[in-house]
Specification:
globular
Length: about 110
């Protein structure tokens, strides 16, 4: 069973930055999507960004375009989410999904 674990969440002021990391416990074969989702209180989980493990194709939610960057390190089975110019509305639990495997989530709070 593949385990996925996120790290890097926390409290940050508006305009600040955070970098989330997500690592799979083992190498996964084949071509698959690595993605970040988020869920704010009272809202549905939404896709934030995604990237293929085998190529540079990325996808971003409109709300984060130009502020967030997804990247990966296949040698480390890891996907990252660099979040800049954070806004209070970015506050949520951020979840990582590598292929079909979900992490437990990490809290990101943007507040002054």
């Amino acid at each position: 069973q593949v385990q996925v674990a996120e790290s890097g969440g926390g409290l940050v002021q508006p305009g600040g930055s955070l970098r989330l990391s997500c690592a799979a416990s083992t190498n996964i074969r084949g071509t698959y999507v690595m993605a970040w989702y988020r869920q704010a209180p009272g809202k549905q989980r939404e896709l934030v960004a995604s990237i293929l493990n085998s190529g540079p194709i990325t996808n971003y939610a409109d709300s984060v375009k130009g502020r967030f960057t997804i990247s990966r390190d296949n040698a480390k089975n890891t996907v990252y989410l660099q979040m800049n110019s954070l806004k209070p509305e970015d506050t949520a639990v951020y979840y990582c999904k590598i292929q079909a495997f979900w992490g437990q989530g990490t809290q990101v709070t943007v507040s002054s």
